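Hi all, posting the design record for the shared folder.

TITLE: backbone redesign
STEP: 1 of 1
STRUCTURE INPUT:
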């Protein structure tokens, strides 16, 4: 079988190569956009978590927590007696 080069074959080959290039470029742009959206979602999630923790800390600021008998037995809490030094 003898293959001859023709102008239409060359043009068709160039169109196929160009189409594949454009398709790969489009898929690459789509993947970059998808990655950016996932990163933004993670960033916003972390930001909300930090804001929630900060708000909880501000609400509990100045409050006194009293440990019950059950909790004090489990923890290593020691009472300290202070004596005045003359």
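Okay, here is what came back for every position:
SEQUENCE:
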């Amino acid at each position: 079988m003898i293959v001859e080069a023709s102008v239409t074959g060359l043009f068709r080959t160039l169109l196929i190569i160009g189409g594949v290039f454009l398709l790969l470029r489009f898929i690459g742009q789509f993947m970059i956009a998808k990655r950016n959206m996932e990163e933004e979602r993670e960033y916003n999630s972390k930001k909300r978590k930090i804001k929630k923790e900060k708000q909880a800390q501000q609400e509990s600021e100045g409050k006194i927590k009293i440990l019950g008998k059950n909790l004090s037995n489990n923890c290593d809490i020691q009472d300290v007696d202070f004596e005045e030094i003359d």
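COMMENT: Residues 26 and 32 are 10 Å apart (CA to CA).
Let me know if anyone wants the other runs.
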